[in-house]
Amino acid sequence: MKTYLVTGAAGFIGANFVKYMLGKYEDIRIIILDKLTYAGNLGTIENELKDSRVTFFKGDICNRELVENIFMQEEIDYVVNFAAESHVDRSIENPQIFLETNILGTQNLMEVAKKFWSTGKDEFGYPVYKEGKKFHHVSTDEVYGSLSKDYEIPKELILDEKVAKIASGRKNLKTYGEKMFTESTPLDPRSPYSASKTASDMIVMAYGETYKFPYNITRCSNNYGPYHFPEKLIPLIIKNILAGKKLPVYGKGDNVRDWLYVEDHCKGIDLVISKARAHEIYNIGGFNEEENINIVKLTIDTISKIMKNEPEYQKILATDVENINYCLITYVQDRLGHDARYAIDPTKIVRELGWYPETSFEVGIEKTIRWYLDNQKWLNNL
Ligand code: NAD
Q1: Is the pTM of this model over 0.85?
Q2: How many angstroms does the Cα of residue 218 sit away from the middle of ligand 1?
Q3: Distance (Å) from CA 166 to ligand 1 centroid
Q4: In 3-state terms, the chain is what percent helix, strand and coil (to 5)?
Q5: Which residue(s) pair with 147 in the sheet?
Q6: For the chain, how many structural domains are there in total?
């Protein structure tokens, strides 16, 4: 039986990961450590907290004594570090907490794991670790900076033969530019958030070099799916459409992001933890580059279609179904230093571990919208 310490599991991706793992593995223990900031929500994991395989600790990943206590009480096999301050706009307003949690918190977790996992030293003075222990750090494509947008009209994305064969469930892929981020793209963060995540990646890699500390890093693109806090684009748009409110879109709405369905992401993390060699870094992307404005339009179209075809959902609306149209879109002043384009090349994880993003955006966005329609209580309780 493996025991996972999952930090930040009352947040969006961490909660989805815990649900996925408990569903997939019978014989597993999950220890959750979460500070329950504004982004943490116990309601998201209320069923999981009743599961005898789960133990919850409320607290800060920066708290040495608390983290040591957890390692003293539990034989942790894997740390999966989701805990972070994760919203770029908030990092522009108040960068300091991002540096504390994202950098010092990560370092604190590793320091304690190093202490409890090491059994002695080898002949060169490097720590020797108990078999099978690993620290999994969840990072972001934003550490690579921004890519140029070379095409106004996207072109077909051509995959290499082996990747195309494994990812045969995905067709008609497209791209807005000539380059994509690979694991060897130089790190070039541009916001306080991405700078803090880059610093955390680098301190993880430094522990790998200096102490032979066993780690993996995954860098993912924008996630979407159930339980997403409605300050991020897709859940905010869904919430506002249902409330009949305006839909704020930064600048001209032409920034490009790659969108990854959260369950596909969780599958990728599980594979990396269980199959990847220590000290490897993997990009996890969705094969779905899209301009923000098109995401907003598709969300409007999908909600409008559902409301018209299944009128029982109209009781959720605080507006008339006819008002769900592009007139809701309102362009607002652009974010400071807004990155133009992110595009993840996940070739390495596809080729080495056989993972690919199974969920097309059309399928994923409809699943996500239906989840919000069916879980109004969760949304209203926030
Ligand atoms: P989130 O903001 O929804 O959740 C973060 C969780 O961490 C919350 O439950 C919060 O209470 C907890 N937390 C914050 N500070 C803490 C601290 N000091 N100690 C303990 N817990 C703390 O974040 P998310 O969207 O689920 O993202 C999870 C991870 O994935 C983050 O590391 C983020 O950088 C990364 N990531 C997210 C996305 C995305 O699209 N959401 C994309 C790329 C990378």
Answers
A1: yes
A2: 14
A3: 30
A4: 45, 20, 35
A5: 341
A6: 1
Q: How many residues does the chain have?
A: 382
- The answer to whether residue 260 sits within a structural domain is no
DSSP secondary structure of 262-297: HHHHHHHHHHHHHHSPTTEEEEE--S-EEEHHHHHH
Specify the 3-state DSSP secondary structure of 374: helix
Residue 35: strand, helix, or coil: coil
Ligand 1 center–CA 88 separation, angstroms = 12
* pLDDT at residue number 324: 97
> Residue 177 carries which side chain, given as an amino acid letter?
G
Please tell me the distance between residue 85's alpha carbon and the centre of ligand 1 in angstroms: 6
Residue nearest to atom 33 of ligand 1 (CA): 86
Q: CA 258 from chain center: how many Å?
A: 12
Q: Which two tokens stand for residue 257?
A: 């992001």
- Domain housing 60: 1-145+187-220
* Ligand 1 atom index nearest CA of 10: 9
Cα–Cα distance measured from residue 266 to residue 9, given in angstroms and rounded to the nearest whole number: 12
Residue 80 is assigned to a structural domain of this protein: yes
Structure tokens at 196: 């803090």
Q: What is the CATH number of the domain that holds 83?
A: 3.40.50.720
Nearest-5° angle of CA 365, CA 369, CA 370? 115
Residues 333-347 have pLDDT tens digits of: 989 988 899 999 999
Pocket test for ligand 1, best of 56, 57, 82 (most atoms within 8 A of CB): 82
Ligand 1 centre from 185 Cα, in Å?
24
Q: pLDDT tens-digit profile of 155-195?
A: 999 999 999 999 999 999 999 999 999 999 999 999 999 99
The catalytic position among 85, 142, 270, 339 is 142
Q: Is residue 29 part of a domain?
A: yes
In a domain, 319, yes or no: no
The gap between the terminal CA atoms of the chain, to the nearest Å, is 35
Q: Which protein residue has the closest C-alpha to ligand 1 atom 43?
A: 140
User: Does 193 participate in catalysis according to the annotation?
Assistant: yes
Ligand 1 is surrounded, with C-beta below 6 A, by: 7-8, 10-14, 33-37, 39-40, 60-62, 82-86, 101, 105, 138, 140, 197, 220, 222-223, 229
Q: Is the pLDDT of residue 259 over 90?
A: yes
Residue in 141, 270, 290, 291 annotated catalytic:
141
